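<purpose> Linking amino acid order to shape
<body> The protein record starts here
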Amino acid sequence: MTMTEGTLRPDALAVRDGRLTVAVHLPWYRSLPVSCLESLDVTVDGAPVAVRALAVGGFTGSLADAAASAAWWDLRDTLDAALDTAGTPGAAHVVEVALAVRIPYIQQAPGVPLVQRATVRTEATAR
């Protein structure tokens, strides 16, 4: 099993307040600060979709807000990304998520932290 294998699961898609939400698991083997999330891009059925808000481990806000957060993304928790697209329960979609998380305690070179990048895709039916 690879670290990215469980990042986006077939039950990841939900509808909340009429909009799609995708649940993303951390593609790393240890919990990390939310501030380590460097990017999150989502496509639904091949079309890019804006991420309206993120929520995990006591943090709720934008990707920009995450950079200043002291909250942690626990390995067992999902990062819920509220998307800027309407959703209908029972509708099937192809969802792709590209994310990058900085690993602050591993350096690629002096002063250059490792950034774990993952692009994952699943077919999901919105709950």
Q: What stands out?
A: The CA atoms of residues 105 and 113 lie 7 Å apart.
